[in-house]
Design brief:
With about 400 residues, the chain is of the alpha/beta class. The protein is about 35% helix and about 20% strand. The protein folds into two domains: about 150 residues, NAD(P)-binding Rossmann-like Domain (Rossmann fold), CATH 3.40.50.720; about 200 residues, Dihydrodipicolinate Reductase, domain 2, CATH 3.30.360.10. Strand 2, helix 2 and strand 3 form a beta-alpha-beta unit. It starts with a strand and ends with a helix.
Amino acid sequence: MTAPLQVGVVGFGLRSSLTEQVRRSGHAEVAAVCDPSVRGRTDAARALPASTMITDSLDQLLTCGVEAILVLSPDDTHRSVAVAALEAGVAVFCEKPLSTSIEDCDEVLATARRTGTRLYVGHNMRHMPVVRQLREVIGSGRIGTVRSVWCRHFVGHGGDYYFRDWHADRRHSTGLLLQKGAHDLDVIHWLAGGFTRRTAAMGRLAVYGDISSRREPGEERMTDWYDPTGWPPTNLQDLNPVVDVEDLSMMIMELGNGVLASYQQCHFTPDYWRNYTVIGEAGRVENLGDGPGGRIAVWDRRHSSWAPPDTEIEITGSAEGHGGADRVMIEEFLRFVRTGQPTETSPVAAREAVAAAVAATGSLRGDGSARSVPELDPDLVAYFEGGQL
């Protein structure tokens, strides 16, 4: 019998739920947790076995015998934590986004290659049933060659989740096109079969910038201050002291394979879901709802005006994290650490999602003109596409 994989966790906050997926896997255990906050360490002590080492020292965690770590700390710490772990020969699961700048992403990738340490980025939406079912329709050829992908992201809990803590401060998040949009940009790229090479964007802080009620930051988390009865968004109270990221953004993209795409994100909508519309030469597919019980609609015959879908497919999945995607993602990571088997997620794709978001944010905060997205070193592309061998 192979001994359980010894896993460390850096940051025991909102995404600490992933530790339960590690424990449920049956072939790994959480051996150590590092968190600088008293709350994080206290929560870890309550949730994990007494044998788990709990510390505020990253060095102590990396030298206690863990074979892999989950980097679940705030986005602007991802590079430093991931690089330190890779240098120590500890396999890394890095929660998305890979980092908050293109340069930091490229440093993480270069470090993984130089050290030969395995790197995995947690783009769990590649395992969400809605995305996989959209891919199945596209792969079947029913809508022909993909020519355009549109995504509308209605972030109904935006004020509660992203404007009361560090997410609202561009020094820590760059912006919500990156922090929140990295998921969707990765999915757009995956559905379209290419990466953004040119992009332009517009956006503004339309609602939350006018709210004067602010709070001193503490150790609370998104779910602590979420209030589903709070409406309208202009009534929100206790925002982060610094609010300088956009709550309304839209970007257009030209991918390297010629596909044109768009992404729109709003943080003050009454509903919370994503709509992907994929248009091919022979039809169109889109999701109506993005979780179990929602529908995927396909139009692949000609109609004189609006018409019901020619085919409807029920979205599958479970009620657990992201339709069951978190469980599948963690199992894939643990298997990758053990065996090096290919994964659905891609460090290169994770970098490209960040790069597109950074370029679009620069356009948005500039004059709205198109920006080129710098390409990754071809040697790094080849290394990761070759399975990190």
